[in-house]
Amino acid sequence: MARQVFVAAECGMFNHKGGVAALLNKYHLPGTLRDEYGKSLIHYIASPTAVDGRPPWEAEDIVKFLTSHEHFINSVDFRGRTALHHLAGHPHSKHERIIWCGREWAAEEAWVSVAKLLTQYGCDPRLADDTGNTAHTLATDAANHDLAQFLQEYRDGHDQSRRLPLE
């Protein structure tokens, strides 16, 4: 039964009959469910699985999941990677055009929007995985320039807010 939830999550099926929400409710499963690799549903939201390069979950479904199901936004898989690590580590072309959330996007632009949603709900891009890589490092290595820039600006903004003013 848990496998069905992850298959639905991988396909981006949230509110559909047989989708993530219905299966969690039907089997009384928590939103904190993990697969055999330690990946949570948050990881599936951020993992590129669609053949055309678009995010598998619509933005509206991401928000519905995050606001209606228990989850650990910074959960890590067995490699110490958060959802942002998964999102950042796969190349997303700026030139590839996709349909996501009912409109045309550059693939990388859509994925930056997913990253922004996750950070708005508390996913911390400053966390390092088991090898010491942050999501920013992975985005840079994968040539996801817009995503790397967003993650850098996020980190810089949060590091600045923690500094004490000089007296």
From TrEMBL:
Gene3D superfamilies: Ankyrin repeat-containing domain (1.25.40.20). It comes from Scylla paramamosain. This is Uncharacterized protein. It comes from the Eukaryota.
